[in-house]
Automatic annotation (TrEMBL):
Residue ranges occupied by any Major facilitator superfamily (MFS) profile domain in the UniProt entry: 7-417
Membrane protein topology class: Multi-pass membrane protein
Transmembrane regions: 46-70, 82-100, 106-133, 153-171, 177-197, 231-251, 263-284, 296-315, 321-340, 361-383, 389-408
Protein known as: MHS family proline/betaine transporter-like MFS transporter
UniProt-listed InterPro entries: H+-coupled_symporters, MFS, MFS_dom, MFS_trans_sf
Signal peptide from the UniProt entry: none
Keywords on record: Cell membrane, Membrane, Symport, Transmembrane, Transmembrane helix, Transport
Compartments where located: Cell membrane
């Protein structure tokens, strides 16, 4: 494996495993609810199953604090090794965990534990992996970090495709018995591969040099004290990307509920959109290395804001599977131009010695706030305004927030050619 692709594979495999598991859990939620959270009321069962996902998101900032700080103290690779061990353990539990009918109340307890482990691990994965990628080559930070977004999209497509195939070829009884576990079993194959690749890689020279000069003794406290503005900007930059990801996942459900499209719409459109994003994200990262991240992020944020309402109007004018496929493809074409350079911009806001902590906390707080707030706000807007365009209004508002954050953040970013270690006590 070449000098470029080995670090990419090492940093991306954990991210892919995380999203493979979360996507599979979400798509197979009704089956998991029946087997692990049985109730006389189907809605209560589903609520418990998806409440477990919410708990996994809540625990992510804790993982960010612990593993992000560990990445800044011990190094990127030790933190990445720790996160993938935890992630594989969580996936192992989900893959082989017997249902409620077999082990009783231990089943839901173990499932909650597995999802908490998954969330904790994911909380530290992004900061460590992104830091490792951008520190490989100062001139190709955008391209290297863009594989975070590409790996998320790939994992989403893989999980969706696996569940579409198993649900199509198996009987309902077979799918409920074991078919829904197939994506998690595939994840178990990815885990050891990622562990092996990571085990045989060394620390980045940039981190080793910076640590020798300015190692943080208390990464969390010092980062929170010295880099609050940078963290706030990161969260603002992330806002529209997180909301857009939710809307891409929500659109099939929106089409099924609002316009009565067939349930197969969900699988097909997610696969189409994710495939497009896998191809474009690395290209967008490369372009950001050439023309600058601020310029590309601004163009993409404006594109998201301008296209939001027209895309919903297009679907409203002719609600059909074909229109849905066109809308989802367009969303897949637009989003990666923002997510491609996103990780690199966030990473460049922090000095090397605080990058793991700053990235992990910012990313996970942003994901919790806007990942958790978007479904609530969209539901409220739909009920209050009484128009199917309501989700687009929220998207436009967050695009404006992210646009302002991108422009302000440009003041705090040092060009790659002038990057230097920064004192942990430097204020912003």
């Amino acid at each position: 494996m070449s000098g470029t692709w080995r670090p990419v594979a090492a940093a991306s495999v954990g991210n892919a495993l995380e999203w493979l598991s979360f996507t599979a859990y979400t798509l197979a939620g009704s089956t998991i609810a029946e087997q692990f959270f049985p109730s006389e009321d189907e809605k209560s069962s589903l609520l418990l199953a998806f409440g477990t996902v919410a708990l996994a998101y809540v625990i992510r900032p804790v993982g960010a604090l612990v593993l992000g700080a560990y990445a800044d103290r011990a190094g990127r690779m030790p933190a990445l090794m720790a996160s993938i061990r935890i992630m594989v353990l969580a996936t192992l539990i989900i893959t082989f965990l017997p249902g409620y009918d077999t082990i009783g109340v231990a089943a839901p307890i173990a499932m909650v534990l597995a999802m908490l482990l998954q969330g904790f691990s994911a909380g530290g994965e992004f900061g460590s992996a992104t830091g490792y990628l951008v520190e490989q080559n100062a001139d190709r930070r955008g391209f290297m970090a863009s594989w975070q977004g590409a790996s998320q999209a790939f994992a989403t497509v893989l999980a969706t495709l696996l569940l579409a195939i198993t649900s199509g070829v198996l009987t309902d009884a077979q799918f409920d018995a074991w078919g829904w576990r197939v994506p998690f079993a595939v994840g178990l194959l990815l885990g050891p591969v990622g562990y092996y690749i990571r085990k045989n890689l060394s620390e980045t020279p940039e981190f080793s040099q910076a640590r020798g000069a300015h190692q943080l003794r208390q990464p969390v406290a010092q980062t929170l004290r010295s880099h609050k503005t940078r963290m706030a900007l990161c969260i603002g930059i992330l806002a529209v990307s997180t909301a857009y990801s939710y809307l891409i996942t929500y659109m099939p459900t929106y089409a099924i509920r609002q316009y009565g499209l067939p349930a197969s719409t969900s699988f097909t459109t997610v696969i189409i959109t994710g495939s497009v994003m896998v191809l474009i994200a690395p290209l967008a990262g490369h372009v950001s290395d050439v023309i600058g991240r601020t310029r590309l992020l601004v163009i993409a944020a404006v594109g998201i804001a301008v296209s939001g309402i027209p895309l919903f109007l297009l679907f409203q004018a002719a609600p059909s599977f074909t229109t849905m496929a066109v809308v989802m493809t367009l969303m897949g074409l637009i989003k990666p131009w923002y997510t491609g350079p996103l990780a690199a911009r966030m990473a460049e806001l922090f000095p090397t010695t605080a990058r793991g902590t700053g990235l992990s906390i910012s990313y996970n707080v942003g994901a919790v706030i806007f990942g958790g707030l978007t479904p609530v706000v969209v539901t409220w807007l739909l009920a209050t305004l009484g128009t199917p365009l309501a989700p687009a209004f929220w998207l436009v508002a967050l695009a404006a927030l992210s646009l302002v954050s991108v422009l302000v953040s440009n003041r705090y970013v040092r060009p790659a050619s002038r990057i230097r270690p920064v004192s942990p006590h430097e204020k912003v």
